[in-house]
Automatic annotation (TrEMBL):
Species for this entry: Fragilariopsis cylindrus CCMP1102
Alphabetically ordered keywords of this record: Heme, Iron, Membrane, Metal-binding, Monooxygenase, Oxidoreductase, Signal, Transmembrane, Transmembrane helix
Interval of the full protein contained in this chain: 171 to 717 of 741
Cofactor(s) of this protein: heme
GO MF term list: heme binding; iron ion binding; monooxygenase activity; oxidoreductase activity, acting on paired donors, with incorporation or reduction of molecular oxygen
Lineage, broadest ranks: Eukaryota, Sar, Stramenopiles, Ochrophyta, Bacillariophyta
Binding annotation for heme: C468
UniProt-recorded name of the protein: Cytochrome P450, carotenoid hydroxylase
Similarity remark: Belongs to the cytochrome P450 family.
Membrane-spanning parts: 1-20, 32-56
Length: 547
């Protein structure tokens, strides 16, 4: 009995048991919530055969682009419609929707950092942080990306022919990059292990566990003194906070206040980190904890997300049709020729590579679900749902905007489950989805097709005011790292792609690692044959398609 009650409340995981809540689904019809369409018992994760977002995908395919899901005392409006998503993320006033339960979950780690920040705090912090990501800085970061990609290459060369977990390697390289970029700290995780690196990973895992729990077990009285994982979490957080405090103090002790323009012009050879920029920014309150909170947020937000993009892109390319991987590799080798280090213009020139990476983010969006809470009552536009009018959203409603569902919707994409980087060169429109402009390749500007090009059917970095601040950084980092790796190596699965498996928290991980064998590409190896795969793909699909 105790087990049932605890599990129902979602406390199972805290006590080492599986959660066994009962889910209730309600579908919308004629702008009203219909009767209950499904009562589902059992472990939600097992029922879906895996992570929660897969369960939401199953319900989406059965119930349409908007439904209500309740388990235990919690209830969520699940949205998989581009018109409604655009309204919530962009069209509605910036303070209409907040991060809701996500803020509660992340607060102990990120404080009032940009991701969980309430609208008032966010407004001030976003204005402070955005200038730090200026174009000259981004270009400068390319040197860092190249240095770290080379360290990874050396490591892969040493281990040539052995089985290597590429997911773990990508996580290490992106951790090292973000450490240097955010606070000029070298984790050195590609080449060594340390208690600090372990603490970073344990904190990330705890954050992910919290975001998939139904009840805040970490808020139980004195949880950090008696609950195994929570005691460890507190110790880890103390360790990370100490390091951050030291780094901030060091930067503050050598502060030279400058205007944003002066900071952008400064060619700071010594330390180009975001910490240095923010500390030296005139008017910034360096004693404030929000500086710590923003740095911690960027460490967490900018690390496994990029690693996941690299992991899943390699996973898909390695099992693609003959010629697909070779198309990307040939482009890289042709653009770079004898150069070892790609620069900004090379990244721009490697379009097939960028489209492969962005296709990776389409099939494996990070995070797979965006979380919001309505701060006041609102009416959602009709979108593609069957309703007569818009839907009323009551104050306090918790909302999941499922990026996973949008990115894989049969209404919004041709062959949605196929990894096909060529799709980004073809338009797609479905007149049945009312109010949706479709995907238009002519609207792609910059390094990747953004949420605007696909009118919110694709949101690799979110959209609207809370859109990712690190999108350009991440695209450049991923393009440089991936191009250097595939210029120099070919990859083969150890075992089969099915062995890789999938699990999630805030980002989508493999279950068993991306275990591969790599062989070095020699400089004078001829370019492999693609048999015109890219062009053939266009001919097969037609240069534009309509649903
Ligand atoms: C926000 C994705 C890399 C920092 C977001 C959001 C998404 C996202 C979807 C919006 C969340 C929401 O609306 O609730 C990604 C992906 C990345 C990536 C897929 C890599 C492939 C980075 C990097 C950084 C970063 C490298 C920092 C260096 C942030 C921050 C926010 C954010 C600070 C909060 C923005 C705000 O609320 O104003 N990211 N991100 N991200 N991301 Fe990223």
């Amino acid at each position: 009995f105790a087990v049932t009650i605890l599990s129902y409340l979602g406390l199972g995981p805290a006590f080492g048991m599986a959660a066994v809540p009962t889910a209730v689904i309600q579908k919308y019809e004629g702008s009203m919530l219909s009767f209950i369409t499904g009562v589902l018992g059992g472990d939600l994760q097992t029922m879906a055969g895996g992570p929660l977002f897969l369960l939401l995908n199953k319900y989406f395919l059965e119930n349409g682009p908007i439904f209500n899901l309740s388990f235990g005392p919690k209830s969520f409006l699940v949205i998989s419609d581009p018109v409604m998503a655009k309204h919530i993320l962009r069209t509605a006033p910036a303070d209409q929707y907040c991060k809701g339960m996500l803020a509660d979950i992340l607060e102990p780690i990120m404080g009032k950092g940009l991701i969980p920040a309430d609208p008032a705090t966010w407004k001030v912090r976003r204005r402070a942080v955005v200038p730090a990501f200026h174009k000259r800085w981004l270009k400068r970061m390319i040197t860092l990306f190249n240095e770290r990609a080379e360290i990874l290459c050396d490591d892969l060369t040493r281990k040539e022919g052995t089985v290597i977990d590429m997911e773990e390697r990508f996580c290490s390289v992106t951790l090292d990059i973000i450490g240097k970029a955010v606070f000029d700290y070298d984790f050195g995780s590609v080449t060594k292990e340390s208690p600090i690196i372990k603490a970073v990973y344990r904190v990330l895992r705890e954050a992910e566990h919290r975001s998939s729990s139904f009840i805040p077990y970490w808020n139980l009285p004195y949880a950090d003194q008696w609950m195994g994982g929570q005691v460890e979490f507190r110790t880890d957080m103390t360790m990370l906070d100490d390091i951050l405090a030291k780094l901030i103090n060091r930067a503050v002790s050598t502060r030279s206040e400058l205007t944003v323009e002066e900071l952008e012009d400064r060619d700071n050879a010594e330390d180009p980190s975001l910490l240095r920029f923010l500390v030296d920014m005139r008017g910034e309150d360096v004693s404030s904890t929000v500086l710590r909170d923003d740095l911690m947020t960027m460490l967490i937000a900018g690390h496994e997300t990029t690693a996941a993009m690299l992991t899943w892109t390699l996973f898909e390319l390695a099992q693609g049709e003959p010629g697909m991987f070779e198309e990307i590799q040939n482009e890289v080798r042709t653009v770079l020729k004898d150069k070892d280090r790609p620069d900004y213009d090379d990244v721009v020139a490697m379009k097939k590579l960028r489209y492969a990476l962005i296709e990776g983010l389409r099939l494996y969006p990070e995070p797979p679900v965006l979380i919001r809470r309505a701060r006041t009552e609102d009416i959602l536009p009709q979108g593609s749902s069957v309703m007569k009018d818009g839907i009323k959203v009551l104050r306090g409603t918790d909302i999941f905007v499922s990026t996973w569902n949008l990115h894989r919707s049969p209404e919004l994409w041709e062959n949605p489950l196929t990894f096909d980087p060529t799709r980004w060169e073809r338009s797609f429109k479905n007149p049945n989805v009312k109010g949706w402009a479709g995907y238009d390749p002519d609207k792609v500007s910059g390094l990747y097709p953004s949420e605007n090009a696909a009118d919110f059917a694709f949101m690799p970095f979110g959209g609207g005011s809370r859109k990712c601040v690190g999108d350009q950084f991440a695209m450049l980092e991923a393009a440089v790292t991936f191009s250097v790796i595939i210029k120099n190596f070919n990859f083969e699965f150890e075992g089969s792609p099915e062995d890789v498996g999938m699990q999630t928290g805030a980002t989508i991980h493999t279950m068993n690692g991306l275990r591969m064998r790599q062989t070095r590409v020699k400089k004078d190896d001829p370019l492999p044959s693609t048999d015109g795969w890219w062009e053939k793909q266009h001919l097969k699909r037609g240069l534009s398609s309509n649903g």
